[in-house]
Amino acid sequence: MATPAIRMFRRLEGLFCVYKPSGVHWELVRDTIETNLLKGVNSTPSLPLPREVRFLALEGSDSEAPKALRLTAVSVPVLSKHPLVTGPEFRHIKVGVGHCLDTPSSGVLVLGVGNGNRTLNDFYRARVTRDYTLEGEFGTATEDFSHTGRVVERSTYDHINQDNLNRVLAALEGANQKALLTYSNIDMNSQEAYELAVQGLLGPDGKSPPILTGLRCIRFQPPNFTLEVQCLNETQKYLRKVVHEIGLELRSTAVCKGVRRTRDGSFALQDALTRHHWTALDVHQAIRKYHSSKKGKKLFRSRKKEPPLSEDDTSSDNETSRNKEVAG
To answer: By C-alpha distance, which of 157, 150, 159, 201 is closest to 180?
Structure first.
């Protein structure tokens, strides 16, 4: 019979996402969640101790044999099965990490527990896009393209306006769209390419360089600006370099002040658990929500695949209803 701790662990198996703060390494996030899940699983009420029958000796009566002993059967708990003797039922829970975020970055970080680690491997290899918001600042260039790096150049930015910035972004997005078609290895005139494009699954076949599938400016207040990016196979360092290259295209310089992931596949920012909710109960609720959303999508797809009623089926249904009315 499964113990309460095992039943609790089975409810935790699956995928969920958390919000990784900036300045915190992803390994620390994973280790913190593993510790919290261990505490939650091992704190469940344990089963009653098993009992065994022992024969205890009692002193004899004061009759013929004063030194005679009598045996009596007594039911006693098996103390060797006590949690204080055996220790916690779970000593390690493996939490897997999907697409990692470097220390300066923040945002959505997908994790897996139990059999969710196998699903996480499939999720990692899937051609899913990720969304980011990039905070940039014109006028400065650094060694590592971030605002904390060593400054190597300063320049003016008064000549930059939003129209110029939008033209550079459109040209960069167009170049990346061509790269996406090149690395997809699919005939663009085929039905397969059309179906993949409709479902949003058109992507590189295997490993490819980083590709930006979408790029637009959502805030422009010189010297500061904010970009919204959709991409594949990216790294956060590459995204900082994109901000640097945009500055060069505008005959200026730019540094990246912040990288925040807002979506990873089907996991969005509103689904991410903040630091105060990295508990076993909150993780269980997030995993249950993820499973229910997957079931809803499968049901929706199955309904979409049902063929519509033909004219013969419709006429037969109408005839059946008329017969029922006549019979009534």
So the answer is: 201
Are 231 and 213 in contact, with CB atoms under 8 Å apart? Answer: yes
Question: According to the model, what pLDDT value does residue 309 have?
Answer: 46
The span from the first CA to the last CA of the chain, in angstroms, equals 56
Classified as helix, coil or strand, 318 is helix
- What is d(CA 41, CA 12) in angstroms, rounded to the nearest whole number? 9
φ and ψ at residue 108, rounded to 5 degrees:
-75, 125
Q: Is 279 left (phi over 0), alpha (psi -120 to 50) or beta?
A: beta
Domains and CATH numbers, the chain: 1-42+89-126+272-291 (no CATH), 129-264 (3.30.2350.10)
Tokens representing residue 159 in the block: 């000549």
CB 6 within 8 A of CB 89: yes
> Could you tell me how far CA 95 lies from the centroid of its own chain?
12
Listed in sequence order, the residues at least 6 apart from 10 whose beta carbon sits closer than 8 Å to its beta carbon are 2, 114
CB 210 within 8 A of CB 234: yes
* Tokens 């704190």 found at: 43
Q: How far apart are CA 29 and CA 96, in angstroms?
A: 11
62 is catalytic: no
Q: In sequence order, what are the residues at sequence separation of 6 or more whose Cβ sits closer than 8 angstroms to the Cβ of residue 79?
A: 49, 85
Q: Which residues contact 200 (CB under 8 A, 6 or more apart)?
A: 129
pLDDT on residue 58: 75
Residues in the chain, overall count: 328
> pTM of this prediction?
0.79
User: CA-CA-CA-CA torsion for 277, 279, 281, 285, nearest 10 degrees?
Assistant: 50
Residues (pLDDT < 70) of the chain are: 1, 59-68, 185-203, 205-206, 296-328
Q: Which of 31, 62, 102, 122 is catalytic?
A: 102
Q: Which two tokens stand for residue 307?
A: 């063929």
CA atoms of 126 and 263, how far apart (whole Å): 15
